[in-house]
């Protein structure tokens, strides 16, 4: 047989393949794939992590045809505003077609990450069946499945390392899913997160599982696990790095006894603990048990614990290394001041409202924000719910925290001005986009005129995600943003006076965006039809939030008003799984 | 929703084709002190849907006032908190309200044919509770003294605590009382002598 020397192209491709193995960032890979056909081919062969930002932008078939050696898949579905009941459920984002395609294309698949997708028990069953090497399942803000589906995963995925259920809705059934993990032998479990599961679990089975899982590092329990049970688990797993404490109280009907376990020493024994959360139904007496670990914590989530400033102080004063802090506004400005005084390394802060209504008290304000800005100079990400805010405090933060990448301020009362000056909040947000040069995500609120949007358009050159609610005066506002922000990818707007003219001004940019959501604005069916006709690769969905059908189409007259416009680029024809309350314009 | 399109004038009457949630025929434009947003008559959350039509007008005049308005119809999906988080606190509030042994407790009175129930959470102190019992059963209980109990009364209020023991109402601080009280019994003074003068 004659020796066939590989021709030069082949050599190049081999070299490229070896080099591209090391390229992990998907943005870099996307760029590499555009160089030439050869690079496109090799990149497709070497991409092992597939990220689909919008499950309807590409079909499973097309995705799996291009990338043949994928080991990990991430898929995102519903638009974020659907989380707030703005749309009827059953909109779509079904995992089923994906699991079928992945099953035939990637039998060696190891990891699946889904966000805002509808996943059924049947889908989970298929996952367990199709992928014998399956290792990691992460479901964030998903729904459609229940404990039956989890049981199949537990039972069949023998190499499971990660089972993370985060803020997902899990339907209750009488299925004891924890009990379905193999009863004997060591497991490879490294992470088990189920704090969002709203049904009791078989604790004895869980305890046995933890005993058999020496690699377990992350364990987040749900509120049906009492503090006594937590103790039993902690003494079995002192190697934990991430712990969600469950209820952190005794079960109902049980009184404090004399023979309570030594919770403090259980915490002290967890020398590697860096991330603490849970406290779902906290009994305050027990809070002191965590003091021993505070000094090592980099992440603390107290956002389900109704504690006041004094109670917080006892904990936060130890937390010098804290980088991530989620908390309820029950700690008041005083609590934030305490955090600001201690947590000099803070990168991410989220302050949630204990009373999420427009006319609630609002125990945190501009005072707390100011204090945080002065104490936590390294802040990168903030989500802050409040009732009273001033431009001055927001400006201060823009100056004090130059590393800010995410600024999300929610002034809960709609159209609220600066509570000291009575002015709109334009200048505050303007300062944020101007001074925070790394800003990529912004959520605005309060009384805002078109001026605020002018600032965003002028200075927000890196902004990728923008959330707007009850803001602006006229079409100009939206125009400023669409014309000024070249990196804009995700734009979600509700209840703002932007109409067809404004929508038109983004025609040059919509193909560069992942999606646009506009609800209760001033759009007309004709305006949306215009967009649909101008941009054939854009899927233009119009939705009635009362669930009724919209009559008519763009050729004839569209009779009805609709409430929501949701549009996104797609390589495919419009989806065929749209429910009746969704009309796709063309 | 039928509206005539007015093509004349300086601006297009976009009202004819605009999208908004409004009740048919409702056409209010709420002008606020700032020359800005036209507030839409927003549909209220399902819990208060029935009241929304009457509240929506006053609903629009919000925000600028710092004084607490009467509880407004809430706007759907605002503030943007996921329902999981929202529910976990509402749940806790109702759990907290209902938790502990002393919420609605049965009250029996010696000689009365049937029992009553009182909600202990409604009262802030012993005098309030006793007054309520007095009016409920049409009797006089009188004043409590630490040393002598209800010596001068014909009727003496007692309660069963978490341990199952019968105690004199008034001995322990109010907060401890409402968390340990399981039921009340108004005893005839003569029977109660044994309790009071220990």
TrEMBL record, chain A:
GO cellular-component term (any): SCF ubiquitin ligase complex
Compartments it resides in: Nucleus
Pathway as given in its UniProt record: Protein modification; protein ubiquitination
Gene3D superfamilies: 1.20.1280.50, Ribonuclease Inhibitor
Residue stretches making up the COI1 F-box domain: 9-48
Record bears the keyword Nucleus: yes
Keywords: Auxin signaling pathway, Nucleus, Ubl conjugation pathway
Positions of the Transport inhibitor response domain: 69-114
Record InterPro entries: COI1_F-box, Leu-rich_rpt_Cys-con_subtyp, LRR_dom_sf, Transp_inhibit
Keyword Nucleus part of the UniProt annotation: yes
GO BP, sorted A to Z: auxin-activated signaling pathway; SCF-dependent proteasomal ubiquitin-dependent protein catabolic process
Pfam families, per the entry: F-box_5, Transp_inhibit
Name of the protein: Transport inhibitor response 1-like protein
Organism: Quercus suber (Cork oak)
Lineage: Eukaryota, Viridiplantae, Streptophyta, Embryophyta, Tracheophyta
TrEMBL record, chain B:
Source superkingdom: Eukaryota
A biological-process GO annotation: auxin-activated signaling pathway
Start and end residues of each PB1 domain: 102-189
GO cellular component, one term: nucleus
Keywords noted in UniProt: Auxin signaling pathway, Nucleus, Repressor, Transcription, Transcription regulation
Keyword Repressor belongs to the record: yes
Entry-linked InterPro entries: AUX/IAA_dom, AUX_IAA, PB1-like
Keyword Transferase among UniProt keywords: no
Annotated signal peptide: none
Residue span of region Disordered: 1-75
Residue stretches of biased makeup (Polar residues): 33-43
Compartments reported by the entry: Nucleus
Family: Belongs to the Aux/IAA family.
Function: Aux/IAA proteins are short-lived transcriptional factors that function as repressors of early auxin response genes at low auxin concentrations. Repression is thought to result from the interaction with auxin response factors (ARFs), proteins that bind to the auxin-responsive promoter element (AuxRE). Formation of heterodimers with ARF proteins may alter their ability to modulate early auxin response genes expression.
Assembly with partners or alone: Homodimers and heterodimers.
Protein name: Auxin-responsive protein
Species name: Quercus suber (Cork oak)
Gene that this polypeptide is encoded by: IAA4/5
């Amino acid at each position: 047989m004659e020796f066939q020397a590989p021709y030069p192209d082949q050599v190049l491709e081999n070299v490229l393949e070896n080099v591209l193995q090391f390229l992990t960032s998907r943005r870099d890979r996307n760029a590499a794939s555009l160089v030439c056909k050869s690079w496109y081919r090799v990149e497709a062969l070497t991409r092992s992590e597939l990220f689909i930002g919008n499950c309807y932008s590409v079909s499973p078939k097309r995705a799996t045809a291009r990338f043949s050696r994928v080991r990990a898949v991430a898929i995102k579905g519903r638009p974020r505003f659907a989380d707030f009941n703005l749309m009827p459920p059953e909109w779509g984002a079904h995992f089923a077609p994906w699991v079928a395609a992945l099953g035939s294309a990637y039998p060696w698949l190891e990891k699946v990450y889904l966000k805002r997708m509808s996943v059924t028990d049947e889908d989970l069953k298929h996952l367990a069946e199709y992928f014998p090497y399956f290792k990691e399942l992460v479901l964030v803000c998903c729904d459609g499945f229940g404990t039956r589906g989890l049981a199949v995963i537990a039972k069949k995925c023998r190499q499971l390392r990660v089972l993370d259920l985060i803020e997902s809705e899990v339907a209750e059934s009488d299925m004891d899913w924890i009990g379905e993990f193999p009863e004997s032998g060591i497991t490879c479990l490294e992470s088990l997160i189920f704090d969002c599961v709203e049904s009791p679990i078989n604790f004895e089975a869980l305890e046995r599982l933890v005993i058999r899982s020496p690699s377990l590092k992350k364990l987040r329990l749900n509120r049906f696990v009492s503090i006594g049970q937590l103790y039993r688990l902690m003494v079995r797993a002192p190697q934990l790095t991430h712990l969600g404490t469950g209820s952190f109280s005794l079960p109902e009907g049980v009184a404090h006894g004399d023979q309570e376990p030594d919770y403090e020493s259980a915490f002290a024994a967890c020398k590697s603990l860096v991330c603490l959360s849970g406290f779902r139904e906290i009994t305050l007496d027990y809070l002191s048990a965590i003091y021993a670990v505070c000094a090592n914590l980099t992440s603390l989530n107290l956002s389900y614990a109704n504690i006041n400033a004094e109670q917080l102080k006892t904990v936060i004063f130890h937390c010098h290394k804290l980088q991530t802090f989620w908390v309820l506004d029950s700690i008041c400005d005083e609590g934030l001041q305490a955090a600001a005084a201690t947590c000099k390394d803070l990168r991410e802060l989220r302050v949630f409202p204990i009373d999420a209504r427009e006319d609630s008290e609002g125990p945190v304000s501009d005072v707390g924000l100011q204090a945080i800005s002065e104490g936590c100079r390294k802040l990168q990400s903030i989500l802050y719910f409040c009732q009273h805010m001033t431009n001055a405090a927001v400006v201060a933060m823009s100056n004090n925290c130059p590393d800010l990448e995410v600024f999300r301020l929610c002034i809960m009362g709609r159209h609220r001005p600066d509570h000291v000056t009575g002015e709109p909040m334009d200048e505050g947000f303007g300062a944020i986009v101007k001074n925070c040069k790394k800003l990529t995500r912004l959520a605005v609120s309060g009384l805002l005129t078109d001026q605020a949007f002018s600032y965003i358009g002028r200075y927000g050159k890196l902004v990728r995600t923008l959330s707007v609610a009850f803001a602006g005066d006229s079409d100009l506002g939206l125009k400023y943003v669409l014309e000024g922000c070249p990196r804009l990818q995700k734009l979600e707007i509700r209840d703002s006076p932007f109409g067809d003219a404004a929508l038109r001004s983004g025609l040059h940019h919509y193909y560069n965006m992942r999606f646009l959501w506009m609800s209760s604005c001033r759009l007309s069916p004709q305006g949306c039809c215009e967009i649909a006709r101008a941009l054939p690769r854009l899927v233009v969905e119009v939705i009635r939030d009362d669930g009724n059908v919209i009559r008519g189409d763009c050729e004839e007259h569209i009779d009805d008003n609709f409430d929501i416009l949701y549009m996104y680029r797609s390589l495919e024809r419009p989806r065929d799984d749209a429910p009746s309350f969704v009309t796709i314009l063309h | 929703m039928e509206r005539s399109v007015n093509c004349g004038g300086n601006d297009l009457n976009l009202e004819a084709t605009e999208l908004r949630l409004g009740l048919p025929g409702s056409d209010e434009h709420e002008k606020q002190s700032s020359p800005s947003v036209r507030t839409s008559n927003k549909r209220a959350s399902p819990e208060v849907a029935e009241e929304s039509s009457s509240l929506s007008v006053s609903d629009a005049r919000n925000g600028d006032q710092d004084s607490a308005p009467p509880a407004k119809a809430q706007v759907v999906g605002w503030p943007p908190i996921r329902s999981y988080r929202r529910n976990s606190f509402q749940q806790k509030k109702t759990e907290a309200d209902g938790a502990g042994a002393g919420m609605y407790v049965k009250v029996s009175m010696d000689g009365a044919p049937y029992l009553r129930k009182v909600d202990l959470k409604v009262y802030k102190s012993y005098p309030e509770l006793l007054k309520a019992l007095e009016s409920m059963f049409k009797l006089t209980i009188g004043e409590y003294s630490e040393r002598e109990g209800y010596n001068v009364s014909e009727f003496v209020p007692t309660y069963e605590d978490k341990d199952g023991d019968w105690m004199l109402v008034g001995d322990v601080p109010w907060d401890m009382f409402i968390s340990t009280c399981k039921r009340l019994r108004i005893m005839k003074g003569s029977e109660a002598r044994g309790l009071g003068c220990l």
